[in-house]
Amino acid sequence: MILHRLLLALFLFIALASRAGAADTFDWRLPPRMPPPPVPTDNPMSASKVELGRRLFYDIRLSGPGCMSCATCDQQNRGFADDKRVPIGITGEHHHRNSMGLSIVAYFKTLTWANSLERHLELQLRRPLFRTKPVEMGSLGHEQAIVDLLSSNSVYRRLFEESFPETDGRIDFTGIGKAIAAFQRTLISARSPFDRYRYGGDASAITIAAKRGEKLFFGDTLKCAQCHQGVHFTDAASSTQYHNTGLYNVDGSGGLPARDQGLFDVTNKPEDMERFRTPSLRNIAVTAPYMHDGSIATLSKVIDHYAAGGRAAQSGMPSPLRSLHVTGFRLADNEKADLIAFLKSLTDPEFLNDPGLSSPFR
Ligand code: HEC
């Protein structure tokens, strides 16, 4: 019996080790200081799966009526966000939240603006595909037609076979989800001028103004790095904390416009009212407009919001629910320009133009 258990343990160890090995052999093409992101054991990375995911990400055949792809709202040159206040679905309905950039999405512990239950890229994409309130890609009810379309294409048949030998290349939404998740894990921006300066030893990669801005950003007065911390410029890679930055106070008690209460909508806990996940600031200069509802047009106005101690405080009604780190500060015009220069140094042109991440259909 003991021998039997030992053999079983050994077998499990070897099985797990070989899985981890498979993930390890994937070439992430990352700078040495950037750790590869976590990968679930039931969806190991492979070059063909990433290629398949890239095709699917850019393929309008994935939407119901066939005129919208993931990339319609997650555009590479905009850090995989878009330039709208809120995106518009295939039937013309407006989403209530701004498109989030995907620059380092693989590292986040939870996904989207404020949903602590959303943890798996493999499943998250079912929302834009299938949700009905509002309709986004409108694929609900068209699942079989979409699978048939993909199955009639020899490139897709080959890529599914190479990517999923365990199912003999079955084409279905489980495989579609796994492949798009694998592609999204490769959306890692780590070669901005700031990276070259801070981690690559290239002292001239960013301007003197940006260096002054870096000091402000990481300093105790502005406190930006309390939440936008570390190499990912967010605490969402190391924790599942959410924060209220004091944007709204419609009722004197810190309330938001009724359509969106932040994390509260998921947890129903009063302390979670208007709490959102900290977005990464990588490529932030190309993802305007800002915040969960796209309600701030420019970086300059985002800084005004924090300087006031939360936008609601600009009209004399600071939110009583705002984070202790959003207390307000005074910034001279030249300091504000320095801070913006620093934020712009996080723009990574190599990532935004990488042909390996762009549409294969061009
Ligand atoms: C208490 C934590 C916290 C602090 C401190 C903080 N932020 Fe934020 N930041 C957030 C959260 C959370 C959001 C999203 C809020 C929302 O959408 O309602 C955000 C949003 C942003 C955005 C918009 C991101 C996007 O993709 O739309 C920018 C830019 C930004 N912050 C910059 C800064 C700067 C600059 C500072 C310092 C002056 C700072 N933040 C301080 C947590 C914080």
How do the helices and strands line up, and which of them pair or pack?
Elements: H1 2-24, H2 47-57, H3 70-73, H4 121-124, H5 126-130, H6 143-151, H7 154-163, H8 173-185, H9 193-198, H10 208-218, H11 224-227, H12 264-267, H13 299-307, H14 333-344, H15 349-353
Helix pairs in contact: 2-7, 2-8, 10-14
CATH architecture assignment of the largest domain: Orthogonal Bundle
Which cofactor or ligand species appear?
heme C
> Could you describe the largest sheet, including whether it forms a barrel?
none
Average pLDDT metric:
86
CATH topology group of the largest domain: Cytochrome Bc1 Complex, Chain D, domain 2
Radius of gyration, taken over Cα atoms and rounded to an integer in Å: 22 Å
Percent helix, as a range, is: 25-40%
How many domain units? Answer: 2
In percent, how much strand structure appears in the residues?
under 5%
**Category by helix and strand content:** mainly alpha
The level 1 CATH classification of the largest domain is Mainly Alpha
What's the helix-strand series?
HHHHHHHHHHHHHHH
Number of helices: 15
Q: Detail the poorly predicted runs.
A: 6-23
